[in-house]
């Protein structure tokens, strides 16, 4: 299906200026830990933004309509998810797409998966215990441990010429430490884009069970699969092990991160009670309306988005093969994030995001923004109109050649 045949227009460039968008106004603080005093050879609106995991596509109209409909009720008072319809919409989504149902009582909500990670580390780990995760890793897995002064331990993924696999011997060795009580597992994996197979997931689960380890399976990217790929919720494979917490959200899938609404499925009654005692569980009524509409009406839009993203990944591969032949690139199996090794072009560059901001006018994430095992890699957000993607790739290749 080409863009012109699509019902939704993913080629549309949308102005995000003056919307308090992190992607537009927050890059100095988030990427460079600085402020407006930091200057670049480019004006802010000249940058091609390929960094934070936000999409440059309009939030689907059926979600906007659901939010407007809630606004028409004209009172926005204290709100929680009291209605059963939200659970029904979400569990119908996971059943239809992943063949997985969970009990209504196990579902709680959070104002984001990052806040949920911070809370769950506090509720699960004692101060002298450790959090385990595979690397390269999304930095907030580390930050969640750091925030509570909990030690973290990493297990480097094996990089087979850009295809990452789990080093199960190393993972088990680290899980054997009785102080390692929690694993935060990214499924699918940011930044490598891996979709873990059932066999890989079974080994991760078996290691956790053998070593009595909790697992938070962060599945925020699970809807954003390349066509032909399938996602398996980790908890689906271990219905009798209640120490697997599953985190999912409509935020990545439907570009709703600003609604700050995520799903956390906690089968363990003891941990769930601690969550309910400590967690501030009021929600934004507009977020509930938007999230429910996403799961009720989102299939068609998501399938078109997947086609558009697959085409962007293919275009990126062809462009890099032609203009940056020494770069190592594979189409990510999931996410809208491309993980590209450009180490042969910049073997000694310490700060890749700064290099590309100054020399290409492209904002991207990379290098040590991901917890170790990421040298020479940049991560490119491909969830943007093709014209923006092409300009970003052009600038990157020009800066390296
Ligand atoms: C694995 C993973 N978990 C959680 C989050 C954030 O969840 P939230 O708190 O928004 O519900 C992200 C967003 N990843 C981003 C955001 O910008 N760059 C990234 O790599 C993520 O990649």
TrEMBL record:
Enzyme Commission number(s): 4.4.1.13
Family: Belongs to the class-II pyridoxal-phosphate-dependent aminotransferase family. MalY/PatB cystathionine beta-lyase subfamily.
Record protein name field: cysteine-S-conjugate beta-lyase
Domain Aminotransferase class I/classII large: 54-396
Coiled coil: none
PANTHER family reported for this sequence: PROTEIN MALY
InterPro entries for the chain: Aminotransferase_I/II_large, C-S_lyase_PatB-like, Class-II_PLP-Dep_Aminotrans, PyrdxlP-dep_Trfase, PyrdxlP-dep_Trfase_major, PyrdxlP-dep_Trfase_small
Keyword Membrane attached: no
A GO molecular-function annotation: cysteine-S-conjugate beta-lyase activity
Keywords: Lyase, Pyridoxal phosphate
The protein's required cofactors: pyridoxal 5'-phosphate
Main enzyme class: lyase
Top-level taxon: Bacteria
Pfam families referenced in this protein's UniProt entry, alphabetically: Aminotran_1_2
Bilayer-spanning residue ranges: none
